[in-house]
Amino acid sequence: MSPAPFPYKLVATDLDGTLLRGDDTVSERTREALTAATAAGAAHIIVTGRAVPWTRHVLDDLGYKGIAVCGQGAQVYDAGAHRLLTSVTLDRQLAGLALSKLEAEIGPLALAASRDGVDGEVLFGPGYQVQEGGLPAVYLEDTAAVWTAPLNKLYIQHRELDDDALVKVARETVGSLVDIVMAGPGIVEILPLGLTKATGLSLAARRLKVKAAETIAFGDMPNDIPMFGWAAHGVAMANAHTELKAVADEVTTSNEEDGIAVVLERLLGAA
Question: N or C: which end of the chain has fewer CB within 10 A?
């Protein structure tokens, strides 16, 4: 008896902590499972909080030529053509107001920012600890320069508050002005209000003529919650944040243990 056909037309995967292992590589097993899913008729879309400049090298290494959703949904990127299809920027005046209000509430914040565009730089100021090792970032002694060009998002850190506490107080203080998300350890971001990974994924899916009901999504952090809400089936990695696990349809093994492949192989009838 032949296995049932693959039940999804779109496989959406987060990048860090999900598709990538800790050494920033994708295992051969996961590559083969994604190749088998695409051979079975499903498209694969990477949906990442990283902006395009911090994503391109990964996509090129994978030989990925399709559409990717970057910058927490702000950018829909054609990896084969190396060009942006859509881009949403942060209102700098509104972001500055939100930052002022938040600092008035909890004290000084360390700041970084992602500039818009395929070649947009990531800038970071005094005290900001850049989390993604080996990725290019430009140090600014004077953070006033952050505001001189269009931005996708801001990154904030506090010397005393941990990520969860910072997100909580930021949402309570400025959540009516901007969106606040946790994208990874030490990575708390200020985004345009209403922008989520689901925003970009829905735009990309529309281009592919695929519906939410035909989508399976994989992730590991709270910023993946809207994507899980949009997709028909959300799969959290074993290493995922508890907030994401709470809304997931299932939990697979970790990114180090081929969690994506485990699920895809089962669905393909190969497990």
Answer: N
Q: Note the pLDDT of residue 271.
A: 41
CA distances from 114 to 60, 72, 167, 206, 229 (A): 21, 11, 19, 26, 26
β pairing state of 187-192 and 151-157: antiparallel
| Overall average pLDDT of the 102-122 stretch | 94
Does pLDDT of 132 surpass 60? no
Q: How confident is the model at residue 226 (pLDDT cuts 50, 70, 90)?
A: very high
Q: What share of the chain is helix, strand, coil (3-state, %, to 5)?
A: 40, 25, 35
Provide the 10 A C-beta neighbour count for residue 156.
23
- Cα angle: 242, vertex 248, 251; to 5 degrees: 80
- pLDDT cut 70: percent of the chain above it: 96
> Average pLDDT of 101-113?
97
* Separation of alpha carbons 240 and 253, rounded Å: 10
3-state SS of 201-264 is HHHHHHHHCCCHHHEEEEECCHHHHHHHHHCCEEEECCCCCHHHHHHCCEECCCHHHCHHHHHH
Alpha-carbon gap, residue 247 to 242, rounded angstroms? 9
Q: What is the DSSP letter of 90?
A: B
| pTM of the full structure | 0.90
3-state secondary structure of 82: coil
Q: Residue 233 pairs with which residues in a beta bridge?
A: 216
- Cβ(232)–Cβ(210) under 8 Å? no
Burial class of 234 by CB neighbour count within 10 A (0 to 12, 13 to 18, 19+): buried
Q: Give dist(CA 79, CA 93) in Å, integer.
A: 31
